[in-house]
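User: Teach me something about this protein's shape.
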Amino acid sequence: METRPPQDRPPEDSGSKPLELSTVNVVDLLRDVSRAAAESTSRAANKAADALLGSFNLTGKEEDKDKQPDSKGKSERSDKTEQRTGKPTDSPAEKAEASQRDGKNPPQDNTWQVESSNPKTGVDTLKIKSVQNVSAEQFRTDNHGADPTNPDKDQTYNYKTYQSKLDPGWKVEGVNKDGTIRMTKEMRIDVNHKADHTGLIESTKDVPKEFVKEIEDKLKQIPEGVRQTLEKAGYKVLVAPSVVEGLPELKGQTYRGWKANFEYSDGTQDAEKHLIVAPEKVKAEGNWEKVDRPEVVTHQFGHALDAVGKQLNGLYFSESKNFLEAYEKDFARMSDKDKKSEVGKYLSQANGGGHRETFASIFGLTTTGPENPGDKETLERMFPNTIEYMKKLISQLK
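Assistant: First, the predicted structure itself:
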């Protein structure tokens, strides 16, 4: 997961070929990848991913007619549900659950599904089966020499997250034909009850409706193609009182590049959980205050978009050849003063952290604006090639 704190950033301890893009329906590609993952067909997933990533020469895909049930199929499903329950199933959530029980619409991997719906308590539980493919070498490194060719399906293993932390509790579902290890973990969140959980935004209790509306309005400023890409990739935006109330498991934890814990975070993103958290309040000098940086959620969208690449073919966008060429060209021309500045140090963290933070920062800069308004001129001066890369990428997410 990635997070952005409210205060100024301290440093962490511790002639490329032009990008040629053609129009693509990314939604179709992501849908193909999700279905391929659900069927454990790594080769099909990688084929769809290659079309999207690779050298970013993108091609559209024709809509799969079999994915849209005809009116007869819908009627048969409704009849079965009515026979079983004795009454019509009217709510989209109930229809989805009934459809899954019938086997007509099995749950998709890496997509939030309704596990339980309780209008009396006002709380619904959503569940996601996160699926990640890792190389045999990475699996062995993260799990103290475990044999990647013969993993124990009854045992749980570590998975290295987007934030480069080892996360325990992952199961091995199988070994793909390309030798990568297919790891899975089920995760859940409790959200406010509503009849229809399609769409990006969910909220938890004790969040004012006015703040939810603020987040909705901010998301409308993000390019539609990006929003659709994340939605089809299974992402949710969780509007919560604070980061640690949205993701209780983060309480007391610290995050990359910072000594502060997540109570001091005014936004975060969990790539494995496919979740962006937009908190209403954040701690500052020991006191809870309303979040006052509206562009933080855009920055988290940038991290989420970066992570979509990993979902497709095991490669974050910030690890792609085109991004790295632009990034390295910018650092090669950068002044020593800029390199040694707080921004320069933060965006050059080791182990991929600098790449991921730069991707998200430039995404924010080129869409709704940087998290810190004072960074605008600095980022434009330091990263002209990365900015051009980002503009071209975003323009093709249609």
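Now, about its shape. The two ends are 26 Å apart (CA to CA). Confidence is low (pLDDT under 50) at residues 6-24, 38-90, 99-105. If you'd like, I can walk through any region in more detail.
User: That's plenty for now, thanks!
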